[in-house]
Amino acid sequence: MRDIGLTWFGFDINIYAYALCILLGIVAAVMLTNHRLTRRGAEPWITLDIALFAVPLGIIGGRVYHVLTHPDDYFFPGADLLRTLYIWEGGMAIFGALIGGAIGVAIGCRVTGIRFWSFADALAPGLLLAQAFGRLGNWFNQELFGLPTDLPWGLEIDPGNSAIPVGLPEGTLFHPTFLYEIVWNLAGVALLLLLDARLKAQWGTLLGGYLIWYGVGRSVFESIRIDPSELFLGIRVNVWAAWAAVVVGIVLIIVQRRRHTGAEPGPYSDGRRWQEAAGVDSEDVYTETDDADNDAELVAASAAPSATTGAAPAPSDAATSGAAARP
């Protein structure tokens, strides 16, 4: 566990590097998603309204999934069950975060009127970007590394790390699987953005591309990791989850392309629209100040003597008619 020590007004503050990476990933994903969703016609920063639901539920889902797939780390005689809540110590499962986050997005879209699939397509590249930041946190924690290797980029782990298998000689290097995944995720961001620019992905098809891309990479990287994990039929649970993500992505693309042959009508659901306010000329705005100005002008006009103009007062109607009646 690595943290960053700061002193603020005499108080020592420890900022956990893993938590900081998660936070930076969330911020990056929100900013990229907001940019993409706004270009699709949504209200600027409505992404924040949806994130208020998606982020907390995503964190909860990611933590619950991790704890359930690593029960021996948290449930044993004398274990402190509160440690299941210590997310800053590491332990966030992306597949659980996707499930929890999807529930949060569905709620947020219901509240804001944004189409779920429109938001999902806008979010897809941001997900991979956030995951790249999250994997950087694994480096700070020196966790989730792979099998021993003699490759030049092999990772050196602190000898006291309990995750190192017993019996390995000192100085053994390991596959930096989190680094592989960072590179894979960033490449996926570029690929999804390129596909969206050329194909105008919609109706959730870009989300399907995300699931396929991430699932393929994760199944490979997960297979060479040596951290303890639950097995099903001799295969790590997360490998099964990665394969499931690929299948879901393929099915999603096929089904959505068959169901929706036309273009998306916009990012908002039927009956829910947003239109940017038109610019208003200040001359067209009537205020209380205008009332005061008008009153002052009327008073000044009535008080000004007509003699100032150098002309005689205009005769009354009665005088005019009387003059006309004289012989």
TrEMBL record:
Entry similarity comment: Belongs to the Lgt family.
Entry keywords, A to Z = Cell membrane, Membrane, Transferase, Transmembrane, Transmembrane helix
The main place the protein resides is membrane
**Positions with biased composition (Acidic residues):** 281-296
Q: How does it sit in the membrane?
A: Multi-pass membrane protein
Q: What class of enzyme is it?
A: transferase
Q: Where is this region: Disordered?
A: 264-327
Its Enzyme Commission number? 2.5.1.145
Protein name (Swiss-Prot/TrEMBL): Phosphatidylglycerol--prolipoprotein diacylglyceryl transferase
One example of a Gene Ontology biological process annotation: lipoprotein biosynthetic process
